[in-house]
Write a structure and sequence with these properties.
Strand order of the largest sheet: 1-6-7-4-3-2
Shape: globular
Helix content: 25-40%
Number of strands: 12
Distance between the termini: 35 Å
Largest sheet: 6 strands, mixed
Order of helices and strands: EHEEEHEEEEHHEEEEHH
Length: 209
């Protein structure tokens, strides 16, 4: 995909009246533009970084392309920008429509009973296709209006040319479980059933790293 230079004036025009969806100490991380498109910023926090050779913005775009090729629903990239600040890039994309499972789980009438089998099947599909998504958790899994599941926030991802081995599945589920604990969802989500379906009854992912 072509990479464009975006000067400060054009950036200000593009982001006029944008809503800040995520931010950190360096500024906005994700903006929702008036058009409905999202603009995600990738800033290098250190000058000596692996991002110099393989920028996170390019990984993000490449991951979106590979997920689509593997028939996994995700966001659609529209453009890549290099900003006037040479330590920052940005990606313009159309978000994946729907609600995250973490948003749905906080609704008072929500139950995991109906969606759990589909979630298990979706994660099993990722593992069988060799997709190791370190940030796999309920906040990054979207239920679309069509009733299917997809992924967002996809920069931190690896693709193997074979199904994930058991130790990587356990590690993946351990990250998933830590998210549940952090968001105080561990009592509501049937993690043991989820884990057993993916790595076998009696297995545990809680101690993996």
């Amino acid at each position: 995909m072509h990479i464009s230079q975006l000067c400060q004036r054009d950036l200000q025009q593009l982001t006029h009246n944008a809503a800040i969806l995520e931010a950190d100490g360096l500024g906005p991380k994700v903006l929702q533009l008036e058009s409905g498109l999202f603009l995600k910023f990738f800033r290098r926090k250190r000058w000596l970084s692996s991002a110099l050779l393989r920028p996170y913005s390019r990984r993000f775009v490449k991951n979106a392309e590979r997920l689509q090729a593997l028939d996994i629903a995700t966001l659609k990239v529209r453009a890549i920008y290099v900003l006037s600040d040479e330590s920052a890039d940005a990606v313009l994309y159309a978000p994946l429509p729907g609600s995250s499972l973490s948003q749905l789980a906080k609704q008072p009438d929500f139950s995991w009973t109906t969606i759990l089998p589909e979630l298990i099947g979706f994660v099993r599909k990722l593992h069988r296709k060799g997709i190791y998504f370190r940030s796999l958790h309920l906040g990054n899994i979207i239920l679309t209006p069509q009733g299917s599941l997809g992924l967002i926030d996809i920069a931190d991802m690896r693709f193997l040319d074979r199904a994930l081995p058991k130790h990587m599945i356990r590690r993946n589920l351990a990250h998933f479980n830590r998210y549940l604990e952090r968001e105080k969802l561990q009592n509501a989500f049937p993690f043991s059933q989820f884990c057993d379906a993916l790595i076998g009854a009696g297995s545990s992912a809680s101690s993996s790293t």
